[in-house]
Amino acid sequence: MTGQNYIDGQWRKGGSVTETINPSDLNETVGRYADATLSMAEEALDAARRALPGWRASNIQARSDLLRKVGDALMSEAQSIGALLAREEGKTLAEAVGETVRAAQVFHYYAGEALRHPGQWYPSLRDGLNVVVSYEPVGVVSAITPWNFPIAIPAWKTAAALAYGNTVVLKPSEFAPGCAVRLTEILEQAGLPKGVFNLVMGDGRALGPTLISGADAVSFTGSTPTGRKVLEQAAPTMTKVQLELGGKNPFVVLDDADLDTAVSAAAQGAWGQTGQRCTGSERIIVTRRIHDAFVERMMQAARELRVGHALDADTQIGPVATQPQFAKNLAAFASAREEGAELAFGGTPIEGRTDGLYLAPALFLNTSNAMRLNREEVFGPVGAIIKVEDLDEAIAVANDCELALSSGIATTNLSHAEKFRRASKAGVVTVNTPTAGVDYHVPFGGRPPSGFGGREQGQGAAEFFTEIKTSYVNHGVM
Ligand code: UN1
Fold it and tell me: Is the pTM here over 0.85, yes or no?
């Protein structure tokens, strides 16, 4: 796989080249991508700015048809894009194909939303006037995306921005830009006018400030510390900001839970997709009477999970995506043990059939919220059990955390579920289902510092990617 930057309808070489490595097999280079220079990022923003008047005025049926075509192409290429995704990022082929299908569905959804974009009419307080509230494009959008969902997140930022009449500069993660290149090829083939969508690749620290100050809006997904920097960099130009950031998500298991449901949701939440989701369940809060039975079943689930090469048919947990992340996970586990957490399973590198970043899913017991393990996001396959007495203590422990993205509960008691749902301070709450895994037609995101500046997806996207115009019209008719 090779990839270049795409600026004003032209494929462009950059200053240097970044290579990506297959985390399932460190001896395999997956892609070679041209890094954009700062002046290329500026050119991309200028191209998006020039293309804006035409795109914002474009016919909504034509816009919708184009987004549908992109969705169709993503759907028909889901196997090959999924295979590239699995090779470059390391999630299993099933997860990767599923993610590509999701990206296709997102384009189809926004093909409909482009047509279904209402405004409001109000009678005025003043005789002879009425008021029209309409929603206009924000303008030039910079989308800065992470490596963990390298096709879904570029898709849901790009499709939404385009549907509401904005132009886009996408900067994917330098660790997995391949899918963004494929998406760009598809957008080009669908006939998007030049400049409406641009791709620049490279290091976010170098390109970020330009992409933020030169855009009207920036939609960023990544860590909370980086999100804070994005917000600071957006302040002087007052660039509109949408931040989807870290999680340290609690999953509560009550005495009255159905054990199968609880174990499957907790295991999927903690270890699914190698734990590399901001919505993963890292803190598993379990009431005393079910604790031992639950732990025994979680140990069994961990033992049965097959960790291996992302492309092997029987693999359930792929490798850790990058070497720096692998080292960070091991350091976090070592520090957890130093502060007294009991490592009951995994947490150590394992051998695979190839030289990959394989890590056995980790389960810690006897942990508490006071530990760093339960305060700082670990972007890896880890669940830490916190034993509590009852629902009230579970709620207190769940909410006792700076981050507030998602939270979940396993219970068969409707009132317990409702009490938790109301008390949780997270932006997403799940009942008897994992804290990770979200629908695209409803808002997604967390409260600060897990998120800032409005939700993504569903109605959230319509709000972020538009600006309100309130028009008072004196029609003179009494
Ligand atoms: C999911 O849980 O399916 O980076 C989506 C992330 C989130 C998306 C999670 N922005 O993990």
Answer: yes
Of all atoms in ligand 1, which is nearest to the CA of residue 146?
4
Please, what is the Cα angle at 200 between 90 and 45, to 5 degrees? 145
Antiparallel, parallel or unpaired: β 217-221 and 428-431: unpaired
- Distance between CA atoms of residues 239 and 144, nearest Å: 14
**Closest to 326 in 3D by CA, of 24, 97, 98:** 24
Q: Looking at this protein, which amino acid is placed at residue 166? A: N
The dihedral formed by the CA atoms of 61, 65, 68 and 70, expressed in degrees to the nearest 10? -130
CA of 189 to the centre of ligand 1 (A): 28
Stretch (H or E) spanning 253: strand 249-253
Dihedral sign, Cα of residue 117, residue 74, residue 244, residue 5: negative
Q: What percent of the residues of the chain are helix, what percent strand, and what percent coil, each to the nearest 5?
A: 40, 25, 35
Residues 6+ apart with CB under 8 A from 279: 247, 249, 269, 405, 406, 428, 435, 436, 437, 438
Q: How far apart are CA 42 and CA 198, in angstroms?
A: 11
Distance set, CA 311 to CA 22, 25, 79, 267, 320 (Å): 11, 11, 12, 21, 14
Query: What's the distance, Cα to Cα, between the start and end of the chain in Å?
Result: 67
List, for residues 198-208, the tens digit of each pLDDT value: 999 999 999 99
Locate the ligand 1 atom nearest the alpha carbon of residue 221 and give its number. 10
The residues annotated as belonging to the active site are: 244, 278
Q: Which residues line ligand 1 (CB under 6 A)?
A: 146, 148-149, 221, 244, 277-279, 436-438
Model confidence over 106-117: pLDDT tens digits? 999 999 999 999
